[in-house]
Structures are given as C-alpha cells and as structure tokens.
C-alpha cells in the first residue's frame, strides 16, 4: 500500500474570450492533473491550482517531479492527512528559501486530493461517503451549486444561459467601477428575478477606504455575499471594520494559506462564508478541518473552485460529505479541461454525485492530448 509512482500532465486549452477579473485575465485555461499510484494497483487523481500566473502550470509540474516525487516514493498511501503534514514539514524550509510557499502548498494540495481519491477507490465507495465516515447518515450525494465567473460582460445573458442549464444561484464579477457594477447587478436581477441567490466577487479590488461605499452601492440589489472586497492580507482589524459597517455578509478564503490564517479569520468573526480551495492549500484534509471550524464559529463553508474537472469533483465531494448546507462553485466560462473531464448537470440548483468509487472521474488522456504541453 505504499506509493509507487507520481505523474503530472500539464494542459492548456485555448479560449475565444479571456476570463476577466478586477486584477487580470485568463487568456487560456491551464490545468495540472496528477496521478498517484500505489504498489497494490490503486491510484487516485488530483489537480494543482495554476490559474495565475499564466506561465505557472509547467513550473508546478516540475516542482512535483523534482521536489515531491522522491519524497513520495515508498511512502504510505493510506493516511492522506498524515502524509500532507509530513510533506509540509519536509519542504517548509526550501519553500521559504525560494520564496514559493504558495506553489509548494498547491502541489501538496493535489497530492492530498489524489490520496483521498485513491483511498475511496480502494474502499469501493464514493469519496463523499468515505469522508463522511460515521456521519454518513447526515451526508448526501446532493450538493447545492452556483454558476460562477459571470461578467463583467453580458452578465444577464450568461445568467439566463446558466439558468436554462439548471442553475438557480449566480456569482458575477465586480470591481470595474461603480457605474458598470451597478448596471450589471441591475441587469442580472432583471434577468433572474429578486428571489434568486446572487453573489458578487470583487477579487480584492477595493481598499478599506472605498469598500464600504462600493458595497453600499450594491446593497439595494441584495447580494447574498460580497467576496474578497479587500486584499486577503489586509489586517484583521480592517476586515472587522468593513464587516461591521457594510451590513452584507463577507466571503473569503481562497487566498488564505495555513490553518492559523483560517483560525484567525473565523475567530475574528468577520466572515459569513468561508471558501478554502482544495488545490491552493491543504487539499481535502485541511479544507475539511476549516469547514468543521467554520461550522463551530457560525460561518458557512462554500469551497472555492475555478479550474479543471478533477478539482471541481473534489470540491463537490467535500461539500457533500459535510451535509446540504452552503454552496459549491461551478465555473460558468468555457473550459474544455472541465467540460471533457467532469461537468456536473444541476437540477433546480442541485448536483447529485454518482456512485462510482472515489471522485468518479477518470480523465481521458487521449481525448485531452491536443491540450497537453508537458508530462512529468
């Protein structure tokens, strides 16, 4: 049951239209898929975050091959949390030395996903059921989802298109100026109605000095949450001041790294929704710990995801294992590395996961070959 082999595939899919945020754009859709194989024939898949910088996917695959594959050879495959902690300890100093704690954490996150997929395949059960453990009766294969990444152009058209595909909740991009943000919110409300859940994502666009005003301008449209209105590394005091002033629940977490940062944020009480990303830090193991802490602190766990199909499946399984609360994020923008790997079909805003062991995902590498840029 020890690890025998670790592989990585780097893909880049061209897209006709960039995916815009307040800080930059994705001009193609990258993905790094990894497979961890054990000596007993079991295997599992994971995905490394690599959206930014746009040149980062190949580098992360090289990190896996050069730094982590030697550490994994012969390691036990049956305890993902323990191996994640061991890898973090083994690579902590070199990550500091080269100034890359983020990319190292992202590679470890994918390894953790793959080990959980492997464990559930080995057990012959869907991952959500394995994660639920003795709480399986409270868990369910059903996950409430929202269509994400809408805008800043044609937000109403995108929302209507996603509603026809079964979505009932929607998140669109803000941080493009007062006039445009308000016009977009007005358009999406007119398109989907006052009762639909609509969230906004500022992608760290505002300073404390202007965030409260920007949120006040959007408040009449009733956002369910405002995501990352401030930079993730703004002080706890700044986040608390904004939360106390704006009156709209705040959401964040994709750019927090380390349990201490999540503990600080959740104990400070400024987040209504917490959004760790299983491919950016902690994998499934630590993101589950964050979710359990969030429940104790009165925040709602809504995993962040905007990548390929493997990480999306991992996010949905984790959310499902913890019960029907919250939402999971499903990218609304074209991405063959999601669509040709795992593309959930919501019905009335809910996705029902299958009964296949593990993540229920097995990438067709031949079909994805046109997008392949590297294999390590």
How do the SSEs run, as a string of H and E?
Answer: EEEHHHHEHEHEHEHEHEHEHEHEHE
What's the CATH topology name of the largest domain?
A: TIM Barrel
Oligomeric nature of the chains: single chain
Rg estimate, integer Å: 20 Å
Key terms:
alpha/beta, 9-stranded mixed sheet, TIM Barrel, Enolase-like, domain 1, single chain, 13 helices, 376 residues
Word description of this protein:
This protein is an alpha/beta fold and 376 residues long. The protein folds into two domains: 3-125, Enolase-like, N-terminal domain (Enolase-like, domain 1, 2-Layer Sandwich), CATH 3.30.390; 131-352, Enolase-like C-terminal domain (TIM Barrel). It has 13 helices and 13 strands. Strands 4, 5, 6, 7, 8, 9, 10, 11 and 12 form a nine-stranded mixed beta sheet that branches. β7 (226-227), α8 and β8 (250-252) form a beta-alpha-beta unit. α2 packs antiparallel against α3. The chain is globular and about 60 Å long. The relative contact order is 0.16.
